[in-house]
Design goal:
2 helices
Length: 269
């Protein structure tokens, strides 16, 4: 599934932006040969079931038995005025020497329009390249990689927005999904959990299962979670053997202006 490696794209975009605006050598992550196949699992978010007699009165009635995954109302997009997006993908397998190897890839995106247009993108690879951070405040841009700050005019990154690396579930999910659990607390919302199958995926290798959680207040997907395995050489993993992969994408709308997005500490005057 293409969405599972969209966080890798964000890291590449951040580093490409740095290279476009500065001289110096930046090591980019290796290309993933094959996209991951994932199976449903709770990862970074904790979903707590609520007794049905209580859940019905919290944040609205229970969701329908089925949802149309092509409905735009289900998705928070990069055009929203203020939101946070968090993604964690974990790889567990062996390297080419057959030694156990684990890699964790996390991405955070924060955006708001008040009191001014600000965006923050953070990618951290544990067991790999390290981290990269980019902050855009109006027309000022700052990227930090390997401890070095690279300031640049935000306009110079036009066409290379790190938002493009945000998983676009609306482009990857199709068909109808059935209600699995009614009344689950996740990301501060009461949500209904829907199970996905391979028929719901635009691209699928060996998908076993996956889930989306639809918040009753707002009717949007606040969590997508999955787990599975794939063959990849990412970060030195052995592409001849299967690697276990788990992922969680969290979408959370926030009050515009409530996020504390500032110039990275490594870029202080």
């Amino acid at each position: 599934m293409r969405i599972k490696y969209s966080t890798l794209i964000a890291l590449v975009i951040i580093l490409t932006t740095i290279q476009a605006c500065n001289t110096g050598n930046i090591t980019q992550p290796p290309k993933v040969e094959q996209e991951a196949t994932l199976e449903g699992e709770q990862t970074e978010s904790t979903a707590t079931s609520i007794p049905s007699q209580e859940a019905g009165g919290v944040d609205g009635p229970a969701g329908p038995e089925t949802i149309d995954l092509t409905s735009p109302a289900l998705y928070i997009t990069s055009s929203a005025s203020a939101y946070t997006f968090n993604s964690t993908t974990k790889f567990s397998g062996v390297d080419t020497t057959k030694a156990a190897k684990e890699v964790s890839l996390s991405m955070t995106e924060e955006t708001q329009t008040l009191p001014q247009s600000t965006h923050r993108f953070l990618v951290v690879v544990t067991g790999g390249e390290g981290s990269a951070e980019t902050v855009l405040i109006d027309d000022e841009g700052y990227s930090v990689f390997q401890g070095t700050c690279y300031p640049f005019p935000a306009s110079s990154a036009e066409g290379q927005s790190a938002s493009e690396g945000m998983p676009k579930l609306q482009e990857e999910l199709i068909g109808q999904a059935r209600l699995a659990v009614s009344g689950v607390e996740v990301n501060g919302f009461i949500a209904d959990k829907y199970e996905l199958t391979s028929e719901n995926m635009v691209e699928n290798d060996e998908l076993i299962s996956a889930f989306v959680y639809v918040a009753r207040a707002g009717g949007f997907i606040t969590l997508f979670e999955a787990q599975g395995r794939t063959k990849t050489d990412y970060q030195g993993l052995d592409s001849n053997l299967f690697t276990d992969v788990s992922t969680a994408h969290n979408y959370i709308p926030v009050e515009d202006g409530s996020l504390d997005i500032t110039i990275p500490s490594g870029c202080g005057n």
